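Incident review: delayed structure delivery

Summary: a single-chain prediction request sat in the queue longer than the usual turnaround. Root cause was a stuck worker, restarted by the on-call engineer. No data loss occurred. The affected request and its eventual output are reproduced below so the record is complete for anyone auditing the incident later.

Affected input:
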Amino acid sequence: MRTTIRLDNDLLAQIKLLAARSGKTMTAVIEDALRETFARQENSAGRDTVRLTTVPGHGLQPGIDLDDSAALLDFMAENDDPA
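Output delivered after worker restart:
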């Protein structure tokens, strides 16, 4: 089926470049992109919502560097509350 669409000039340039590199027509590139978009939407529609468990607290403590696991473990050991 033939139709007319309006595209951003930069997007059109990218489509033309991809078509040339891949040896496909512009129509094939656009069709592939649309099929991929629809497939992603179908796949994500069936996913369950992820629920994260959180606990109350005082947030990140001053001086704690989350990239330093040894220092973080030391801090946790020093502040371990047996209650």
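Verification: Residues 9-45 form one domain.
Action items: add queue-age alerting; document worker restart procedure.
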